[in-house]
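Give me structure tokens for this 127-residue protein.
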Amino acid sequence: MRRSLRTLKIPFIFDPGQAMTLFGGEELLQFIEQATWVTVNDYEATLLEERTGLSTGELAARVAAYVVTRGAEGSTVFAGGRRVEIPAVRAAAVVDPTGCGDAYRAGARVRPRCAASTGKRPGGSLR
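Here you go.
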């Protein structure tokens, strides 16, 4: 399926998650080469570097954006030769963190589309 998405020029996020340990370096490189974006948490980023033999910068250079999430410490986005630190939003109370990563990824995809189509960022003006 990943090859057909690329052939059809449909962008996709490679997010190996817990399946990271199922793949070797060559397989991971194939996924990265097909992806538009790669999203991993800090632990997965370390595994990805170890298994592929690529540094953070080398991984980022292969995709439009390489996103490393760090839980309560926020995230880092590597894109266009830039490194952007995104601080975490502090929760008043954490009841259940299930789905937080999925919500983050959805917001990362929706926000640029909102800005492109409306000229405004959600929650504020386009800067």
